[in-house]
Specification:
By secondary structure, the chain is α+β, with helices and mostly antiparallel strands. 19% of the residues lie in helices and 30% in strands. The chain has five helices and 13 strands. The strands form three sheets. Strands 3, 4, 5, 7, 8, 9, 10, 11 and 13 form a nine-stranded mixed β-sheet that branches. It has a two-stranded antiparallel sheet with strand order 1-2. It has a two-stranded antiparallel sheet with strand order 6-12. A hairpin with a 5-residue loop joins β9 and β10. The longest helix has 12 residues. The chain is globular.
């Protein structure tokens, strides 16, 4: 379950109903199509190519990308995960709506649904700079969150990586959130696919 994987993140278990009928805040019912995703990888990437955290930012900058303060902070966090050298992973890109939430969902609900219904996993920390570097043709205005283990900061917030393209610049950003933050249904996430789903 996602909550055990969050290692102390004080989040509640998902309370979303398991049927395809969901309720909005006014109690009106909204029909959500059955949860089905085409089992096709969005991208595959070789991980572990960089083993030294201090090298992620220079590599991204040399390839024309930009890095914000909180992304830079992630690279040096004690729980930032770097994959073994040569490990290949496949990634799936889905929205909160794709996971079955009509309106909004908290991060624990999103993770629980991704694990239980679609057999996705957390992305390792080094997936975000590698995916940023490889996604050179990202459309203007597009952005999505890479579903890594949320990293606890000294200010009590958590940070997760976001890949975006804004005014022609390709960004890797750290996105701050707390346990009760709700993501709209059109928010996009990248999950790692379990090995048995990868092609």
């Amino acid at each position: 379950m996602a909550q055990s994987m969050l290692e102390g993140l004080p989040l509640e278990q998902s309370r979303e109903p398991t049927s395809s009928l969901f309720h909005n805040r006014e109690g009106e019912r909204a029909l959500r199509p059955s949860l089905q995703l085409v089992q096709r990888s969005w991208k595959s990437a070789e991980l572990g190519l960089i083993q030294e955290p201090s090298q992620f930012e220079p590599v991204l900058l040399r390839s024309g990308n930009r890095v914000n303060y909180w992304a830079r902070h992630m690279f040096h966090h004690s729980e930032f995960v770097i994959s073994p050298e040569g490990e290949v992973a496949s990634f799936e890109r889905v929205s909160v709506w794709d996971l079955g939430f009509v309106f909004t969902a908290r991060i624990d609900q999103i993770f629980d649904r991704a694990w239980d219904k679609f057999s996705f996993e957390f992305c390792p920390g080094d997936a975000s700079p590698i995916l940023r570097q490889n996604y050179e043709d990202q459309p203007e205005g597009e952005n999505f969150i890479v579903a890594t283990q949320p990293l606890l900061l000294s200010n009590g917030k958590y940070v997760m990586p976001r890949i975006s393209c804004f005014q022609g610049d390709r960004w890797l950003c750290g996105t701050l959130l707390d346990a009760h933050h709700e993501f709209p249904s059109d928010t996009q996430f990248i999950f790692r696919r379990r090995n048995q789903l990868a092609h």
